[in-house]
C-alpha cells in the first residue's frame, strides 16, 4: 500500500464489545459506551481478512507489503476521563500469531513482518465513559515526505496537502472526496506539487467549515485553480457541487477550472449568492479578530 487508508468504525457489531454496550454509528463518527466493561477487554477490532462466506464480513484493513514501514493513528475525541490502549497483532499464513506491538498515545510506526499474512488492530479498554471515534488512518512510509496531513476531527474534514503548496504556486489542484465507505484507500502515486486532497465525512452541515478550509489555500500568487471530483463525490450535497461557482464569484480574477457541472437555475444562483455572502462575512470576522 502506497498512500493512505481511512477506516471508519464499520457498520457491523461482530467485532465490537457488545455486552451492555451502547453503540451509535453515523457518517461522521461513532459513539461507544460501556463503562462497566472489564479492563483489558477489546472494545473494537479491525481485521485485514474477513469471512464473507460464513458471516458476510469483508476486511476493513488494507493489505500491507512485507518489510515496509507504516504509520497508524486512531483519531478519537480527546476526553481526559477516557483511558485507552491499542495494539496491532501479526499472523502468518496458518493464522498463528507471530508478533504484537503496542501503540503509544494511539499512534504507532512499525515495520510489517516479512512472514505476516494478515493483521488485526484492536482498541482496548482501560477506563472510559463515552468514546467518540472518528477514523483510523494507515499511511505508507513515504507519505510524510510528499504530503502534510491536517485532521479536523470535530467537523470531519481531512486535508492532504503537497508539501510544496505555498505562495509561489501559480496553480492549485483541489480534489474533493467523500468518505462514504467504511474504508477509503487513496493512492498517492503521482508527484504533483500543487495538489490538495480534501476528504469530507459529512454533508451540508459542515459545508461552511469546508469552504473556509479551502479559502485559506487561496494565495495571492495563485492564478489558476482546478477543482476535481474525487471518490464518491456524486453523493455529496449540492453546496459541494456549487464550489467552483462560489469560488469564481469570490475571486473573479482567478481562472477556475472544474469537471463539476451544474445546471444553471434561479435556485442554484440564490444558493451561490448565499454562500458567497456568508463566506465574505466570515472572512471579515477573521480579519477583525486578527487586527
In short:
Helix content is 19%, strand content 37%. By secondary structure, the chain is an alpha+beta fold. The chain has 2 domains: 3-138, Jelly Rolls (Sandwich); 145-290.
What does this protein structure show overall?
InterPro entries: Acessory_Sec_prot_Asp3 (IPR022259). With 291 residues, the protein is of the alpha+beta class. It is 19% helix and 37% strand. It contains 6 helices and 17 strands. The strands form 3 sheets. Strands 1, 2, 3, 5, 8, 10 and 14 form a 7-stranded antiparallel β-sheet that branches. It has a 6-stranded mixed β-sheet with strand order 11-12-15-13-16-17. Strands 4-9-6-7 form a 4-stranded antiparallel β-sheet, with no helix packed on it. Helix 5 packs across helix 6.
* Mean pLDDT rating: 84
Query: How many H/I helical runs?
Result: 6
| Overall body shape | globular
Residue windows where pLDDT falls under 50 for at least 5 positions: none
**Cα radius of gyration in angstroms:** 21 Å
Tell me what portion of residues adopts beta-strand conformation. 35-45%
Share in helix: 10-25%
How many distinct domains?
Answer: 2
Give the biggest beta sheet. Answer: 7 strands, antiparallel
Distance between the termini: 46 Å
Q: Structural class of the helices, strands and pairings?
A: alpha+beta
SSE order: EEEEHEEEEEEHEEEEEHEHHEH
Number of strands: 17
List keywords for this structure.
6-stranded mixed β-sheet, globular, Accessory Sec system protein Asp3, Jelly Rolls, alpha+beta, 7-stranded antiparallel β-sheet, Acessory_Sec_prot_Asp3, 291 residues
Amino acid at each position: 500500500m502506497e498512500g493512505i487508508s481511512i477506516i471508519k468504525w464499520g457498520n457491523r457489531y461482530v467485532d465490537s464489545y457488545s455486552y451492555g454496550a451502547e453503540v451509535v454509528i453515523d457518517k461522521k463518527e461513532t459513539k461507544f459506551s460501556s463503562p462497566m466493561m472489564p479492563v483489558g477487554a477489546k472494545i473494537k477490532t479491525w481485521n485485514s481478512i474477513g469471512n464473507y462466506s460464513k458471516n458476510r464480513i469483508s476486511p476493513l484493513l488494507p493489505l500491507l507489503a512485507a518489510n515496509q514501514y507504516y504509520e497508524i493513528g486512531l483519531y478519537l475525541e480527546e476526553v481526559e476521563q477516557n483511558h485507552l490502549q491499542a495494539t496491532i497483532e501479526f499472523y502468518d499464513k496458518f493464522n498463528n500469531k507471530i508478533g504484537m506491538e503496542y501503540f503509544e498515545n494511539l499512534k504507532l510506526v512499525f515495520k510489517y513482518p516479512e512472514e505476516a499474512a494478515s493483521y488485526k488492530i484492536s482498541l482496548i479498554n482501560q477506563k472510559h465513559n463515552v468514546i467518540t471515534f472518528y477514523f483510523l488512518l494507515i499511511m505508507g512510509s513515504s507519505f510524510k515526505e510528499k504530503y502534510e496531513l491536517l485532521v479536523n476531527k470535530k467537523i470531519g474534514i481531512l486535508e492532504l496537502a503537497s508539501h510544496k503548496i505555498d505562495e509561489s504556486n501559480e496553480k492549485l489542484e483541489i480534489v474533493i472526496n467523500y468518505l462514504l465507505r467504511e474504508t477509503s484507500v487513496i493512492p498517492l502515486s503521482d508527484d504533483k506539487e500543487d495538489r490538495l486532497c480534501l476528504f469530507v465525512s459529512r454533508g451540508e452541515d459542515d459545508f461552511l467549515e469546508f469552504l473556509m478550509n479551502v479559502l485559506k489555500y487561496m494565495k495571492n500568487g495563485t492564478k489558476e485553480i482546478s477543482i476535481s471530483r474525487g471518490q464518491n463525490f456524486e453523493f455529496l450535497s449540492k453546496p459541494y457541487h456549487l464550489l467552483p461557482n462560489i469560488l469564481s464569484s469570490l475571486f473573479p480574477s482567478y481562472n477556475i477550472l472544474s469537471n463539476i457541472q451544474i445546471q444553471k437555475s434561479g435556485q442554484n444562483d440564490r444558493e451561490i449568492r448565499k454562500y458567497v455572502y456568508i463566506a465574505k462575512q466570515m472572512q471579515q470576522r477573521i480579519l477583525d479578530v486578527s487586527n
